[in-house]
Design a protein that fits this description.
The structure is a single chain. The chain is α+β, with helices and mostly antiparallel strands and about 300 residues long. It folds into two domains: about 180 residues, Jelly Rolls (Sandwich); about 110 residues, Arc Repressor Mutant, subunit A. The protein is built from twelve helices and ten strands. Helix 3 runs antiparallel to helix 4, helix 9 packs antiparallel against helix 10 and helix 10 crosses helix 11. The longest helix has 26 residues. About 5% of the residues have low confidence.
């Protein structure tokens, strides 16, 4: 198994790419300054926003899925492993990377809200594909952070740097919303596959064997990260993926209730509920009647 390079600090990453460390907790790294290298995998101990200027390179993401040919943002969160296996070929990294350590965010509003930016746990093939105007805005955001780093640290530096990072991330939320819209046909295909996956799941023995379908199970079967999958379903349906699964489960439950040869407990187990009382509680919350009441109404 190939070794995974541990990159724990902003300074370590900056040095690795032949960049000066202007601040111990944050930097804009010019990847073109790095020496040509072999592909490999790395575990990052900080947040990173890569603005890539090549279609494929040190980050492996599916080029055939791109909406835009140039300028792609890839997000990495602390503890994530990213990269591809060494294929024996040298390549020259290109682009820029905003890297910042969680310690930079301590005591700030961004520190309290960073977990809400789900794209830091997206898979790399779920990268953000930028239009030309969006790419210019990202470059401008990087330039403002770079300016603060180069002018020297004072009492205002942290506030201004973190504010600019937060602004950049909020723009990325907007751009991802745009991407969900422009990839509508692809997204509808995923929604259809999600529905087919649930139908297949409930018609099999899986509910009895492993219980109710989970968001992570469905995302994994559709080759998506759980967060990207959840955000996509939310944008397409207005419901979370978990809510969608619950509604699907209750729709099937209402059909099964009509089979008077089966007890409520049997139906609960067939759907994947571990305990019948959990099924009855969920059914009443969703439908407004207990399973037996609903059966007697029809």
């Amino acid at each position: 198994m190939e070794n995974v390079l541990m990159i724990d600090s902003v300074g370590q990453y900056s040095t690795l790419n032949n960049n000066d460390t202007l601040h111990p907790l944050v930097n804009i790294v010019d990847l073109s300054k790095a020496e040509a290298r072999f592909n490999g995998k790395a575990n990052y101990g900080f947040y990173a926003v890569f603005l890539k200027e090549i279609k494929c390179g040190d980050l492996h993401y599916g080029c055939n899925y791109y909406d835009y040919e140039e300028g792609t943002l890839v997000f990495v969160g602390p503890g994530q492993v990213m990269g591809i296996e060494n294929n024996g070929e040298l390549y020259q990294p290109k682009g820029q990377a905003l890297v910042f350590h969680p310690d930079l965010l301590r005591g700030t509003s961004l520190g309290r809200q960073i977990a809400e930016y789900n794209f830091f746990s997206y898979e790399v093939h779920e990268a953000l594909h930028l239009s030309e105007s969006e790419r210019k805005l990202i470059y401008d955001s990087y330039a403002k952070i770079q300016y603060e780093l180069e002018r020297g640290i004072d009492k205002h530096s942290k506030t201004l740097i973190v504010s600019n990072i937060e602004l950049l991330l909020n723009y990325c939320v907007r751009f991802y919303d745009r991407q969900f819209i422009t990839r509508e046909n692809v997204n509808k295909g995923i929604l259809q596959k999600f529905e087919e996956l649930l139908n297949e799941y409930f018609s099999s023995d899986k509910p009895k064997e492993i219980g109710l379908p989970t968001v992570s199970y469905c995302a994994d079967r559709l080759n998506l990260s759980a967060n990207y999958f959840g955000d996509l379903i939310k944008k397409e349906t207005g419901k979370s993926a978990q809510e969608y699964i619950q509604l699907k489960t209750m729709d099937l439950a209402k059909e099964k209730i009509f089979d008077v040869t089966k007890s409520v407990s049997q139906i609960a187990y067939e759907l994947g509920f571990k305990y019948p009382q959990h099924f009855s509680r969920a059914f009443k919350q969703q439908v407004g009647h207990s399973p037996n009441e609903y059966r007697n109404l029809n």
